Amino acid sequence: MQTKKWRLGLAVAAAVLAACTVSPTGRKQFILPNYTESEVGKMGASAYDDLKKKQAVNKDPQVNQYVSCVSKAILNALPGDEGQGWEITVFQDDTPNAFALPGRKIGVHSGILKVAKNQDQLATVIGHEVGHVLARHSAERLSSQFAAQSAMAVAGVLAASSDSPEKGIAMGALGAGITYGVLMPFSRTQESEADAIGLDLMAQAGFNPSESVALWANMAAANSEKPPEFLSTHPSDQTRMAALNRRIPNAEALSEEARAQGRRPSCKR
Fold first, then answer.
1. pLDDT, tens digit, 9 for 90 and up, residues 219-247
2. Residues 6 or more apart from 176 whose CB is under 8 A from it?
3. What's the CA gap between 198 and 218, in Å, rounded?
4. For residue 26, what are the CA distances in angstroms to 22, 29, 92, 197?
5. Which of 87-101, 159-173, 226-240 has the lowest mean pLDDT?
6. How many CA atoms lie within 13 A of 35 on its CB side?
7. Contacts made by residues 19-22, CB under 8 angstroms, sequence distance 24+
8. What are 96-105's pLDDT values in tens digits?
9. Over the stretch 189-219, which tens digit does the pLDDT of each residue have?
10. Rounded to the nearest 10 degrees, how much is the dihedral formed by the CA atoms of 224, 108, 55, 193?
11. Considering 37, 87, 129, 211, which one is annotated as catalytic?
12. Cα–Cα distance for residue pair 82/50, rounded to 1 Å
């Protein structure tokens, strides 16, 4: 039993040491080697195809042209061929949401157009979602969940020989600690990073960065009932807007430079 404990612990430690990388913003990341861009891209493409089979797709040509126009303006700001080969789908769903998946997939719920009032606000949403993909947040989250499950497995092995009544309580506390102390704050970190990457992306595409704050003000008004930030996977709207406001001056400079180079999106609803 002792040998098994040590082997399991060493395996987890080795995986952690082999998984260090850096995000586009310079943040240290934990991504396991088996979650390559290719493998996670296959997962994203598969999930996207499944969603298209289950979810109604919006057929309005004007809506699709508008969403495609904004999305392509964002994608065209990506370096090299990173903006090529993306699939964009508008889903008929009243919830104000959008997403981007590894494998170069973008999904936009029709309901987001009630909250994103103009092209610049929609560009904020699209830029944010593409930012998640660029920062490999899906691979990072898969790695974190695997590590959390491994930690629980190690704790389970270590506690296997104990029959004390405190054992179940301790395991439950460990699970709650991992959820609220690691995974949720980590998710909030990803959201904030996607906000920062997305703001720069929409600015580099020539959109108006100041509209990013207006977008989150609209989101706050549309979602009045939310859990406390420490129990949420997302930062509060107030936290997001404050962080965006601090980045607006730099983003405005990027937007002015993009416009000087001829990037002037004109996407009509």
1. 888 876 665 555 466 788 788 999 999 99
2. none
3. 17
4. 6, 9, 37, 11
5. 159-173
6. 24
7. 19/143, 21/136
8. 989 998 999 9
9. 888 999 999 999 999 999 999 999 999 999 8
10. -70
11. 129
12. 24
Structure tokens at 32: 């396991």
Is 140 labeled as catalytic in the residue annotation? no
Tokens 């904020």 belong to 124
231/79 Cα distance (integer angstroms): 36
The reply to whether the predicted model has a pTM over 0.85 is: no
Tokens of 134: 């660029």
Alpha carbon distance 196, 233 (integer Å): 17
* In contact, 30 and 183? CB cutoff 8 Å: no
Tokens 């980590």 label which residue?
186
Closest CA to 74 of 114, 135, 131: 131
Nearest one of 33, 29, 7, 6 to 18, comparing CA atoms: 33
Amino acid at 189: T
DSSP assignment letter at 265: -
Q: What are phi and psi of 229, to 5 degrees?
A: -60, -35
| Inter-helix orientation angle 211-222/184-204, to 10° | 140
C-beta of residue 255 within 8 angstroms of C-beta of residue 206: yes
Backbone dihedral region for residue 99 (phi beyond 0: left; psi -120 to 50: alpha; all else: beta): beta
Answer whether 74's CB lies under 8 Å from 255's CB: no
Structure tokens at 139: 């691979």
One-letter identity of residue 109: H
- Closest by alpha carbon to 68, among 117, 115, 107, 124? 107
